[in-house]
C-alpha cells in the first residue's frame, strides 16, 4: 500500500459517523429501549457517535442531521383513536415535518405497543410509512417491542447489531 492509500485509510478510520435517534416516550418504555440500544452499541460501534433528541424539542431539520436517522415511538390513542403515534412524535412528523424530504437518508424505526390493543404497536407502521413517503431509505426491518421492554434487552441488542451492520453498509464503512 502506498503513502496516499495509507493516508486515505487513516482519514477513513478517523471519520466519525453519526447515528441520530429521535424518540418519544411517555411512561419511559421507549426511552428504556433507546438506552439499551445505545449501551449495546457503545462497545461495538467504534467510529460512530450516537446523538439522541426527543420529539418534543426536535425540529424538521434535525431529522436530516447525522448519517443515519432512527425514529422510535410507542403507540397511543390520540383523540380517542387507538393505534396512533405518541402525540409528540405525531406532531413532529405529521405537522412540523410534514413537508420534509429525507432525500434517501438511511433510516430505521422502532415501534412499541401492547398486545391488549387491537392495533398492536401500530406506531412501527406509522414510522415506516413516514420514512417511505418522505423518501427516506429503510436499511433494516423495523423493531417492534410488544409489552413492557424489561426482559427484552437481548432482542434490542441483537437488532442493534443488525442496525450497525446495515448502517456501515449504507455509509460505505
Ligand atoms: C392511553 C394509552 C393508549 C395506548 N394505545 C395503544 C395502542 O393503540 N396500541 C398499542 O399497541 N399500545 C398502546 N398503548 C401501550 C403503549 O404503546 C405501551 O405501553 C408502550 O410501551 C409505552 O411506551 P412509552 O412509555 O415509551 O410511551 C397505549 C398506552 C396508553 C397508556
Describe it for me?
- The protein has helices at 3-14, 29-42, 87-96, 123-133, 153-171; strands spanning 17-23, 48-54, 68-76, 84-85, 106-113, 137-138, 143-146.
- The two termini are 19 Å apart.
- Helix 2 (29-42) crosses helix 5 (153-171).
- 38% of the residues lie in helices and 23% in strands.
- It is α/β, with parallel strands linked by helices and 173 residues long.
- Strands 1, 2, 3, 4, 5, 6 and 7 form a seven-stranded mixed sheet that branches.
- It has a single domain (24-171), classed as Flavodoxin domain (Rossmann fold).
- The longest helix is centred in the C-terminal third of the chain and has 19 residues, at 153-171.
- It is built from five helices and seven strands.
- Helix 2 links the parallel strand 1 (17-23) and strand 2 (48-54).
- The protein is globular and about 50 Å long.
- The site of flavin mononucleotide (FMN) has 21 residues, from helix 2, strand 3 and strand 5.
- Flavin mononucleotide binds at residues 25-30, 74-77, 82-83, 86, 112-114, 117, 119-122.
Task: Write a brief caption for the model.
This protein is of the alpha/beta class and 173 residues long.
Q: Helices, strands, pairings?
A:
Layout lengths: L2 H12 L2 E7 L5 H14 L5 E7 L13 E9 L7 E2 L1 H10 L9 E8 L9 H11 L3 E2 L4 E4 L6 H19 L2
Parallel strand pairs: 1-2, 1-3, 3-5, 5-6, 5-7
Antiparallel strand pairs: 3-4
Flavin mononucleotide binds next to helix 2, strand 3 and strand 5.
